[in-house]
Amino acid sequence: MEGNNSYGNGSSWAEQWDYSDPAASNGAANKKKSSSGGATAKYKQKVGDGLEKTKAVASTGMKKVKQGTSSGLQWIKEKYHKTTQKH
């Protein structure tokens, strides 16, 4: 593949388009991580709270579906027995 490289002196596509200084970008990334640590924890807490609420709502919804299905099947069973009874 080295012979077919149209970028010139054997550099890869990523090297051609990477204009930043690797040492400078590492320092900037470290500053971002340390300064946004509180914000990340805050959003993780909010997401966790949201998931707990979603779990509670889903659980309640499933209980209602289960109860509705049970009562619906019981109603069908009663209707079937009424129509098949011989007096």
TrEMBL record:
Residues 23-42 have a biased composition (Low complexity). Residues 1-87 are annotated as: Disordered. It comes from the Eukaryota. Residues 1-14 have a biased composition (Polar residues). Residues 46-55 have a biased composition (Basic and acidic residues). PANTHER family: OS02G0740600 PROTEIN. This is CDP-diacylglycerol-glycerol-3-phosphate 3-phosphatidyltransferase. It comes from Gossypium darwinii.
